[in-house]
Amino acid sequence: MATNPLHYTTPGLDEATAQKVVELLQGRLHACNDLHLTLKHVHWNVVGPHFIAVHEMIDPQVDTVRGFADDLAERIATLGGSPQGTPGSLVQARTWDDYSIGRATTQEHLGAVDVLYRGVITSYREGITALEELDPVTQDMFIAQTEQLELFHWFVRAHLEDSSGRLSTENAETEVEGSRAVG
């Protein structure tokens, strides 16, 4: 991920460290922008008997994740970086496939969203580990956002587990596999 040189940063961080932190923040910014748009897409495209429950469950997640993106971008600027929030920068930098499921049942979308959340949460946790020595302030932000993402993930997974606690998506590795696993 190409980044612009920093001309200043926050007191107590050297520019090399701040640059590493900005790169981690930018990765999460792209992920959150992608996630809130994908969740809104799901919100618009769910159908079936549980439509209203899932439709209404997703919107607060969209709003919260959109807020995360704003917080991440503002932290980048605070550290002297320039947040990249354009669609082109997101598409160019992302390392994951675009969400490919259109109009589908609530269960199919939730199976796909389960896999989606797994990827986002895993990358946040990797960032938390990387930030341990770099910047505890940004690490705290990642921890707080991860807590919320894990809660949302639990909301999704509650629709996908049976009475023994087994997830229908336990072996799914892609969104399409997650979508198909619920059938």
From TrEMBL:
Pfam families: Ferritin. It comes from the Bacteria. InterPro entries: DPS_DNA-bd, DPS_DNA-bd_CS, Ferritin-like, Ferritin-like_SF, Ferritin_DPS_dom. Residues 23-162 form the Ferritin/DPS domain. Coiled coil: none annotated. PROSITE patterns: DPS_1. PANTHER family: DNA PROTECTION DURING STARVATION PROTEIN, GENERAL STRESS PROTEIN 20U. Belongs to the Dps family. This is DNA starvation/stationary phase protection protein. The lineage of its organism: Bacteria, Bacillati, Actinomycetota, Actinomycetes, Propionibacteriales.
